[in-house]
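Researcher: Checking consistency across runs. Here is Dephospho-CoA kinase again:
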Amino acid sequence: MPYIVALSGGIASGKTTVTQLFAQFGVPIIDADLIARQVVEKGTPTLALIVQRFGADILLPTGDLDRAKLRHIIFNNRQQRIWLNQCLHPIIQIETEKQFRQSYAHYVIWVVPLLIENNLHKRADRILIIDTPAKAQIERLKKRDNINENLAKNMLSSQLSNAERIRYADDIIINNNQKSSLFSQVKQLHNKYLQLSQNSN
């Protein structure tokens, strides 16, 4: 089993950018969001459960999940968001553990947006949090998802604040939109994690 570094941060905090930088050093990435997409693909039992809950309107004409419609529902209805989280969480974790066992790297980056909210932080050997100003997150969300400010704020407020998340951090990456600064921080952490992983064996 590799040394597990859990990477988390608020929505639109720059997790993808940071993950890509770690991947440049050959570090395997286990991404909960990617797994979440795979488990609700067309024809999966999980998608059938979602359709049963939300109705066939939640599907695109192709039979695939209409992610934009589902996102709008769950970020405007807390109970629906809780139901979806409880439905997906165990299924995602089974696949995650499988990927952990299959890795022979010194360490892996485990990307988990809801690391603290789902009480998954105890599964990691080390926790890395990305710290991004809330204003920057809202602007990125509006641009990335083509949504209005109100929905962007709802999406942000559905998660822990940066201050609460940072309380759990062993390491912090400051994302101030400077790529050179991010690369330098990731390189330093990569060397640190290699050393920690070797010491843990």
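Researcher: Does this match what you'd expect to see?
Model: One thing to look at in this run: The first helix runs from residue 15 to 24.
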